[in-house]
Please model this.
Amino acid sequence: MPIKPWRYALPDDATPPTDADRLLLWIVRRQWRTVAAGAAFGIPWMLSIALVPAAIGKAIDDGLVARDGRALLLWAGVIFGMGLLSAATTNLRHWFAVSNWLFAAFRAAIVTERAVRRAGPALTRDKPAGEVLTAFANDFWKLGMVFDVSARFAGAIVSFIVVSIILLQGSLLLGLVMLIGGPLLLASLSFVMRPLQKRQAAQREESGQLTALGADTVTGLRVLRGVGGEENFLHRYAAQSGRVRDAGVRLSGVQALLDAAQVLLPGLFVVVVTGLGAHLAVAGEISPGQLVAFYGYTAFLTMPLRTATEFVNKLITSRVMAGRLVSILAAQPDHPQTTQRVQLGTNGGARELVDPISGVRIEQGRLTAIVSARPEETAEIAARLGRTVPGRHGVTWGDLAIDDLPIDDVRRSIVVSQSDPHLFSGPVRRELGADSTPGADDDALLAALHTADASDAVDSIDGGLDGELEERGRSLSGGQRQRLALARALLRDPEVLVLVEPTSAVDAHTEARIAERIPKHRNGSTTVVVTASPLLLDRADTVLVVEDGVVTTHGTHHDLVRNNPAYRRIVLRGEDD
Model:
């Protein structure tokens, strides 16, 4: 049964802007309904609180002072009703506030994850891996913080305007103090906002560098121990930790100033308005009930003013985090997709895989090897053979453009296994793909392990196939990890399998066994091997020789060794001289 797409997800072709402010607005447009719903409940919630002083003033003047019991009961009922309205709307307002926060964080995570997959290795060459890790662990949640307070901010604006109008009707002086003094208070916070944003960005930068340092160390832990570099790392990590601490201390001073201002400035405002109200009451210009109401208004106004300053504070944080994310969104892959074109065409009824850039032509059902004196050339060809991007010039399959086919179907048809494949933690069967490969059983799994000569790697794991693989397969040797990855690729049994240096980390005897078994295992299927190993080249039906990025000759291994000096220099490394 197909899974119904989540209605809050983003379409595959959603293209976010690479500017921090525009990214936030882009997210707002995609969840404007829930943002509007939050405001629709946030406004009556805060208004129901703001109008309570007015009802209390009426109860005093019309009920207590006038000694009218019915009026007192009426206004008491109004106060009770506003309490019920506040209780009902506060729950719904909070629900939408949290929803907006989570939706914004989720959508930011989606587009960033897509950008990471699109950029591939190019991303971590331009940006430390720790920076990307920090974005996924921290930045998304903080980016969504401004959406959490948006419903309360809408209520704060409306309630401030309503209260100001009420005060203008009761006293022109008090109303003007409210309308002029409130915005001035918020404007005074601008002196704090700019240094706050600058120091938040600095603290985020130092924190990202610390995470990057830790990630690099974990990756190269064996090397560090081998060369005795633990102490050097500890000094570097301690120094960077100190810089993070210093940046946090500098940030905390400005943050504390803003937090204090959120309490102090509204408090001073309350004192001023209350003093003016008392003076007017003594002069007989307002009634006792109006004085109580005015005091209630000024006490209430601390809520919208603090909410407004909180909104500005969180907006700054969200803008800083959005700025970090757009640097990932702007990352471009090493090979622009628009310049690459790989075709799956037909030749006399047999389908073939063609790369017009290099002239590589892979015939169906054969084992083809690609060799070059520069391994990066053949690695780029392998990447092009396996890369497809919807909506761009990419692979065509027969008479159909691959852009018109589901991307998952393409990935099932063409699999590229890189020379340095990744293993992840979890059950061995799942990591090898036995749980996710349709029709895969233990016989197929054991056959793939046999072909890759990886049975000893499985036996070295506690529990074997039912055991747990440690993170990145760190308990295994490099050769064992490479052979397990080869078994994983063979188990997928795709129509086209591209293997990039599949035996670079194994000894000669193991390589000979693998070279003998791969043609038998892939008999009748299209297989491409990117390698300079004579043992693998000897088993290929056709060897393509690449020089300066293009195919210059082809033939069998034996014919090329005998007749092509350039090929001999590449494969035999001068042994024939």
Remarks:
- Residues 20-329 form a domain with the ABC transporter transmembrane region fold fold (CATH 1.20.1560.10).
- The longest helix spans residues 230-282.
- The chain has 22 helices and 13 strands.
- The CA atoms of residues 55 and 78 lie 7 Å apart.
